């Protein structure tokens, strides 16, 4: 049910690792060279074709299987699943029918660990170029993850000189 793609198999491995009490698991999107796959989420050309043919179906299959499996095994409430990239995509389609890098607006998906399903936080403007309400930064995303995992944000981290620094200066998104 996870699919035979590298992402699907990565999600299956992630579930097995969570079941074995591994505390942090990362699943990356990888190319399936054996299948002739060069599709990455970096869709500078043929954005809509790549999404329709390969990216969205493969992601949906692996991600849905992971969440369903975790829920059926009673692990989803204690497991935080985060889907994110390092930037968004341009609101305008380029000359190659693609979308380029865009730091102005991005989407992130949180599931499990007490996150209410179906909750949408924030919004973009009508062009999906910039946040129009409830903008958050990377420090807030990290604070949300720490909060969901029960890690106090002001836990001191001591540097090599013995100086304490707070773990995070962001604000958790408590409306999730």
Oligomerization state of this entry? single chain
Q: What is the typical, i.e. mean, pLDDT? A: 93
Shape: globular
Measured as a percent range, the helix fraction is 25-40%
Decide which structural class fits the backbone.
Answer: alpha+beta
Order of helices and strands: HHEEEEEEHEE
Unreliable stretches (pLDDT < 50, length at least 5) are none
User: Nearest-angstrom radius of gyration?
Assistant: 18 Å
Number of discrete helical segments: 3
Distance between the termini: 28 Å
How can the largest sheet be summarized? 2 strands, antiparallel
Please give the number of β-strands. 8
Main β-sheet, spatial strand arrangement: 1-4
Give the percentage of residues in beta strands: 5-15%
3D architecture notes:
Helix 1 (6-19) packs parallel to helix 2. The chain is globular and about 50 Å long. With 176 residues, the chain is α+β, with helices and mostly antiparallel strands. Helices cover 29% and strands 13% of the residues. The protein has a two-stranded antiparallel ribbon. Strands 2-3 form a two-stranded antiparallel sheet. A hairpin with a 5-residue loop joins strand 7 (156-158) and strand 8 (164-166). The chain is built from three helices and eight strands, in the order ααββββββαββ.
């Amino acid at each position: 049910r996870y699919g035979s793609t590298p992402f699907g198999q990565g999600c299956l491995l992630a579930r097995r690792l969570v079941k074995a009490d591994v505390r942090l698991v990362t699943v990356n999107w990888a190319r399936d060279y054996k299948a002739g796959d060069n599709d990455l989420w970096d869709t500078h050309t043929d954005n809509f074709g790549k999404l329709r043919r390969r990216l969205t179906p493969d992601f949906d299959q692996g991600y849905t299987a992971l969440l369903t499996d975790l829920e059926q095994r009673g692990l989803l409430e204690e497991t935080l699943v985060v889907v994110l990239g390092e930037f968004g995509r341009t609101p305008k389609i380029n000359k190659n029918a693609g979308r380029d890098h865009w730091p102005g607006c991005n989407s992130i998906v949180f599931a499990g660990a007490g996150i209410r399903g179906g909750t949408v936080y924030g919004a973009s403007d009508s062009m999906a170029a910039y946040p129009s309400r409830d903008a958050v930064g990377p420090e807030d995303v990290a604070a949300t993850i720490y909060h969901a995992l029960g890690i106090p944000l002001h836990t001191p981290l001591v540097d090599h000189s013995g100086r304490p620094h707070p773990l995070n200066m962001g604000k958790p998104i408590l409306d999730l």
